[in-house]
Predict the structure.
Amino acid sequence: MTTNDVRSKPLRSRSAAVAVAASMLLLLVPPAADAASAAPAAGAAAAPHGETGLTTPAAAAPLTNLSHLNFLVDTVPLAPVDGHTTYQIAEHPSAQAPWTYADKKADGSYTRIGGGDLDPATGHWSQGAFNADDIARTAVVYLRHWQQTGDPASKEHAFQALRSLTYLQTVSGPNAGNVVLWQQADGTLTPSAKPVELPDPSDSAESYWLARTVWALGEGYAAFAGADPAFASFLQERLHLAVGSLNRQSLAKYGTYDTADGVKVPAWLITGGADASAEAVLGLAAYVKAAPGDGLAATALARLSEGVAGMSSGSATEWPFGAILPWNKSRTLWHAWGGMAPAAVAAAAGVLHQPRLLEAAVKDSAQFTPQLLAAGGPDNAWSPTPGEAQIAYGADSRVQGLVATANAANAPGLLDLAAITAGWFFGANPSGAPAYNPAAGTAIDGIEPDGRVNPNSGAESTIHTLLTMLALDNNPELKAKALGIDRTVATHGLSVVEAESGAITGGGSVIRPASAWTGEANISGGAYVSLSTGASLRVPLPAADEPRNIYPIVNQGIAPSGSTSWTAGKGPLGSTRNGGAGAQGITDAPGILFPFALKRALPAGTAAVVGTTDGDVALDALLVQPQLSTVSVAGPGGEATLYVSAAPERIERPVNLPAGFRLSQEAFDASGRPLTPSPMQDAADQSGRVSVAPGGFTRVTLVRN
């Protein structure tokens, strides 16, 4: 299911997933040569090449190879039991479902594995062989492949996966509409898995797997409505059953708000999350587009989409830089897995004719994602500092959001970002090696920050890799650009300087708590600095000849406790409150660990920042953000550099031009829309000056005169 553990599913809980990050152990191989850690030299430009379009000869061949997913899929026997049945179960007492994991063996082949521990006496896993999360998303892969290619085999696989999924849905009793998560290879349901996952039993409340069931049912209805009306009608009934369950649970709270550290957050999100809700929205958007007269589904779509968009936060110069946060119980946790929110609200905006929903998708895609790429790519979590492994689920979520938002908002610049993001699968990642083998259809289960790779190819990784390949196959121009990128040359973006690296004057000490997890965020580096009234902390910074935005990460308590003034040299930068976090509300811990923006940027050449407090304060770290970040990528199509602004005004930056070359630059505003070249643009291209709009981005290559 996930990269965190090849035998369990820790990402059922957002907090648990982040809390175990520091001790995460993967089945790893040594890293490839490091090609992605160094920042570009000052004034450096993209390496010259003769063509501005990133194209490759292989771009015409389909990237989507279903061979490994077909290998994961197995026949599962089905028998009617209390509360569980499926379409034509009497005539066809079996269906198909994918095994959860696939361990790579020394000879390069794979062994299909269930979740948890295997009991050799019963053949049962402590969790199960198959799970609703992966069955639902497997159905989506086959549905999309069938719709794009007309492949009858994919149609049949989709049909069988949907039959398997609907068997797991409870059809009667108080839990009707909810979904059992795990199933054994012999068809036995496992309502309560070991280790325990919430809800327990797994169909006792709404869940991620209910949301993903809605996703598959919605896309399934849209695909089968014309091809098999009887089956489509069955899927419609099951979708109504699922929506009815949501209406009794989260959606019963529509229009009400909870408090999270003093801020109002939507109370009607599925499991409290924009992440789970977004995947349901994807299915509902597909369904409502195919069945526009269905008021029950349209209402659910509108309400869930409103809640997802309501989790949009920050700006180009305020953490989390426009991202849609996934969890209403934390204002300082973003994760890449389950990051379908921008894709979902972009899809819903068109179906519902509500363009305001696009605002959240555009901010996430055009402002946050460029910062994510410049900071090193789709890290599995920012909590609030970037970190953790990178997985296919996270990379695919970014691609899906960028493509959907580009189309819905007429923002072609987002497709350039999508190409860079999709390059992750072809080698533009921390390992420097491809994360997808198109000849075999296999993926990998994750890449650590130091480049170590989990070589297994479980269902979730395979599914989301294939979803990206389907998106590329469906967009030949984007596909050609993505295939032209197979390595990251350098990134220069958001970085972290630990508070404990600084020098304390006055009363203060370094504190190392037993756990870095606060209940809603992670203490960076596992330590923070505690200062008493009147004390100061001088934090040294790496030298830089550019202005930078500084975000002190303060662990604010609820009670007021004065403020900390921040200076650099003789100039003030601003201040942060030591306390006054606001009412705890639904969060799991009082107070908030948050990166606060300062009023002024750090001037170029500054070597240190000093914080002086007039009350007790806990300082975790400094987030350091160049006002002009960069990510340089290369491959068969040549080399290109993306310049990303976090400045309030337009930036011009000189780059070194080799003799006989000029710049080719495409500039986009903070929404990903192209900017009209100025009358002086040609002169700037010839002289080597890159221009970047406030909060926008510019893609630059070198071409021969």
